[in-house]
Write a structure and sequence with these properties.
The chain is of the alpha/beta class and 358 residues long. It has one domain: TIM Barrel, CATH 3.20.20. Helices cover 32% and strands 15% of the residues. It has an eight-stranded parallel beta barrel, surrounded by five helices. It has a two-stranded antiparallel ribbon with strand order 1-2. A two-stranded parallel ribbon has the order 7-10. Strand 12 (223-227), helix 7 and strand 13 (259-263) form a beta-alpha-beta unit. The radius of gyration is 19 Å and the shape is globular. The relative contact order is 0.14.
């Protein structure tokens, strides 16, 4: 079975081609956003993955999501991540930390001083955001001043220094799902007329500056990048995603990063898939993500569409997913009601095959 064959990501040898996708679970302590001991169990249960990518982790105090969102900008947060990484490594696993900033998808009710969130341009995301008063429309963000952008790059760099101190094997840049870096990439959310707006090269500048800063900390073979060219749900969009992501892939190839992580569900029509073109431009490992099953993952790998497949909901409900693939077992059903809220229930209590057999 192709998905169970060994592989290589950067300097790491993986025992299989199964990636645990970054999965926000909102289980960190408030208000410090430090991981709690149960996260040690959660990640270690899933250490048989070829690679774990951690939940999206905030890089600064200006990025605050729902309660329980994890962060990596303070000493306490670093210390709380360390036993998680140590336990994953002791179990034979490998783990990258995904770093992100919400940008316009934050809400002033959760930000220090009730400050407005910021973005490339003063354009609100479509939809609502959880707040202490219930769901509220995304606010219109303030547009970043040109001289603020280097400070944001520095925030990502500082977070990567902390990731390295915590013991992570590498970091993944979250340039997907409508968050800050994605807001710079897409022209519907980026209406700037300076060096960070307009052309594809300019809109990609912030992402590439962040990537370069993280390479400076970890080395290129320990930095991955995640993108989501098909995501449009919150008003993030671009009229020419093929050209945009071709440029991004070319630049990442030139830098020799560890991998490109592409959210492109198997359900995307063949004519709309970008993976074939990006694979010609980026020759490093390509990870595909988006509703894959064991069967569709094997098919994608056998067709050469990707080198690794990332799984989300299946990994939430099946900590021993790799073993289930190996023996052809069925799956636990995930409980969406506990995805982003709760304690141990729906987090570390999904039964493994051994427990079910007993």
């Amino acid at each position: 079975m192709k998905v169970l064959e060994s592989g290589r990501i950067g300097g790491l040898t993986t025992p299989n081609r199964v990636v645990m996708a970054p999965l926000g679970r909102a289980r960190a302590q408030e208000p410090t956003r430090e991981q709690l001991p149960r996260a040690v169990t959660y990640y270690t249960q899933r250490a048989t993955a070829g690679l774990i990518v951690s939940e999206a982790t905030h890089v600064s105090t200006s990025s605050v999501s729902r309660p329980g969102g994890a962060a990596i900008h303070s000493r306490g947060q670093v210390a709380a991540w360390q036993p998680i990484i140590e336990s994953v490594h002791e179990a034979g696993g490998r783990i990258f930390q995904q770093l992100f900033h919400l940008g316009r998808k934050a809400h002033q009710s959760r930000l220090p001083g009730q400050a407005l969130p910021f973005a490339p341009s003063a354009i609100a995301a479509i939809g609502t955001v959880p707040t202490p008063a219930g769901p509220q429309p995304f606010p219109v963000p303030r547009a970043l001043a040109l001289d603020e952008i280097p400070g944001l790059v520095a925030d990502f760099r500082h977070a990567a220094v902390n990731s390295k101190a915590a013991g992570f094997d590498g970091v993944e840049v979250h340039a997907a799902n409508g968050y800050l870096i994605d807001q710079f990439l897409r022209n519907r959310s980026n209406q700037r007329s300076d060096a960070y707006g307009g052309s594809i090269e300019n809109r990609s500048r912030f992402l590439l500056e962040v990537v370069d800063a993280l390479i400076d900390v970890f080395g290129a073979d320990k930095v991955g990048v995640r993108v989501s060219p098909h995501a449009r749900g919150d008003g993030i969009d671009d009229p020419d995603p093929a050209s945009l992501y071709a440029y991004v892939a070319t630049q990442l190839q030139a830098r020799g990063v560890a991998y490109l992580h592409l959210i492109e569900p198997d359900a995307v029509p063949v004519a709309e898939r970008l993976a074939p073109a990006l694979r010609r431009l980026f020759t490093g490992p390509l990870i595909l993500c988006g509703g894959f099953t064991r069967e569709s993952a094997n098919r994608a790998l056998e067709e050469g569409r990707a080198d690794f497949i990332a799984f989300g909901a299946l990994f939430i409900a099946n900590p021993d997913l790799v073993e289930r693939f190996r023996v052809g077992a069925g799956y636990n059903e995930p409980d969406p009601a506990t995805f982003y809220v709760g304690d141990d229930a729906g987090y570390i209590d999904y039964p493994a095959l051994v427990a079910q057999a007993a």
